[in-house]
């Protein structure tokens, strides 16, 4: 999972567009976690937030933290004179045609490993900066629990996963600012513990659960599917991965919405935005392809995979067109993040904006019934593969971006 981005002309162009929109990115004080490789090239540089797994059954978060450009905000993290680098809530809502006050009455859960001791305070700073409603433990909007539901006996802290947690909480806040948020922290990054945390999130009443992590597929995945991810009436999302062409679990599960990644830039077209497949190099970009183990869901009609195809839908993931995040445990405040870890909580929050899924429904199927209500991404590729749509954008369905990105809420309703 080492990162080795290339300084391609298209990457430089994408970054210059973002920089012109006041999206210069921050450098952070924290060092890369063990096993994480930094990306260095002519544009922005970034590092993987979480360590690379060293054995089967262990997951890594799919968060990429930009490290190359200094922020222009005040030391206390809240600025009246400057906007944090990276796309903020109004950008994301504009790009995806979303309401400004979404999520009312809904509960979105974020599942991650280990504890972020500063999660609540960092969330408060992000929301204050952008004028979002307060979401605190005291007002009942925010709750942090362990995988067993405890609010007092939490896992050990981890600075890499803390970055993932901050990213996830901020993206849900940006897209569904009126939703309640539950952060469920697994005691470690194993499939079993993270899966147990998913079950706890549903037990606590979340109808939308985001999982911004992944690991290698295994012959046990079909049993993990039914044990951890099969929750009728609940929208469960999972990042497709940051390693380009290839499939991760749990994105491969037929019970989740697998979320791929794009490069997002402002544009002088009717939409005001443009998107292409996120691909930095042959080993870094939006995950996609054919599952080796998981069965194909009935609503997936592509013919290049006899089993499950990844992804279903997508959202911004390119660190060079990344999002603003506030993190102080393992970092020094405002920073910019990319990776498909950005895309998964965005899509979970879009589902929340669209309303509670009906009892017994399978929300992963919803976009397939509303393909015209998505922004079709038709340019870019992560690799050369056969059939080509598994790694190259095409009109209609393709692997890296699925059916496309949100264009309003219709595609995420039953």
Describe this structure in words.
- Keywords: Hydrolase, Protease, Serine protease, Signal.
- It is a single chain.
- The protein is of the alpha/beta class.
- The protein is built from 7 helices and 21 strands.
- A hairpin with a 6-residue loop joins strand 1 and strand 2 (46-48).
- Helix 2 (89-95) crosses helix 4 (159-175), helix 3 packs parallel to helix 4 and helix 4 (159-175) runs parallel beside helix 7 (340-354).
- The two termini are 36 Å apart.
Number of helices: 7
> Hey, roughly how much beta strand do the residues contain?
15-25%
Instruction: Outline the low-pLDDT stretches.
Output: 1-41
Order of helices and strands: HEEEEHEHEHEHEEHEEEEEEEEEEHEE
Alpha-beta content class: alpha/beta
| Backbone shape | globular
The CATH class is Alpha Beta
Corresponding CATH architecture = 3-Layer(aba) Sandwich
Total strand count, please?
Answer: 21
Q: How much helicity do the residues have?
A: 10-25%
Question: What is the CA-atom radius of gyration, in angstroms?
Answer: 19 Å
Domain Peptidase S53: 86-414
Biased composition (Low complexity): 275-285
InterPro entries: Peptidase_S8/S53_dom_sf, Peptidase_S8_Ser-AS, Sedolisin_dom, TAT_signal, Tripeptidyl-peptidase_I
Protein name: S53 family peptidase
List the keywords.
single chain, five-stranded antiparallel beta sheet, alpha/beta, 414 residues, Rossmann fold, disordered N terminus
Q: How would you sum up this structure in a few lines?
A:
The protein has helices spanning 9-20, 89-95, 119-129, 159-175, 191-203, 221-229, 340-354, and strands spanning 38-39, 46-48, 60-61, 64-66, 107-113, 142-146, 180-186, 208-211, 213-214, 235-239, 243-245, 257-266, 273-277, 279-281, 284-290, 309-310, 313-316, 323-327, 333-338, 374-375, 405-406. The chain has 414 residues and is α/β, with parallel strands linked by helices. The strands form five sheets. Strands 5, 6, 7, 8, 10, 12, 13 and 17 form an eight-stranded mixed sheet that branches.
